[in-house]
Amino acid sequence: MGTDALGSLLYTADGRFSVTISRRGRAGFAAGDLLGGTTEEKAPVVEGYVAYAGRYSFHGDRVIHHVELSLFPTGSEPTSSGRSNSAGIG
User: Fold this and answer.
1) What would the pLDDT profile of 29-88 be if each residue is shown by its tens digit?
2) Which residues contact 17 (CB under 8 A, 6 or more apart)?
3) Per residue, what are the HEC states of the chain?
4) What is the pTM of this model?
């Protein structure tokens, strides 16, 4: 995504999370329609964006993401983790 990527990480009190990360400056579709891009236009748009969401839990000082939906479905429940911080997740 590059060093200047844009993103959002959201945690809710009821144990849900959402992650979105975008390459800065992605081109739009010529038609200006969300679903109207050509195959050639769609590939770089998808390559420049990551989104996934689901439930989170804690394991010691680590936050575990239990992915329930993703831009890139895998057919199984992938997980990711990172250290919790002083922002007080959970």
Assistant:
1) 888 887 888 888 888 888 889 999 999 999 888 899 999 998 887 655 556 666 655 455
2) 9, 10, 11, 53, 54, 55, 56, 65
3) CCCCCEEEEEECCCCEEEEEEECCCCCCCCCCCCCCCCHHHHHHHHHCEEEEEEEEEEECCEEEEEEEEECCCCCCCCEEEEECCCCCCC
4) 0.74
Lookup: tokens for 78: 């992938």
Q: Is residue 20 a contact partner of residue 1, using CB atoms and an 8 Å limit?
A: no
**One-letter amino acid of 3:** T
Closest by CA to 86, choosing from 64, 66, 61, is: 61
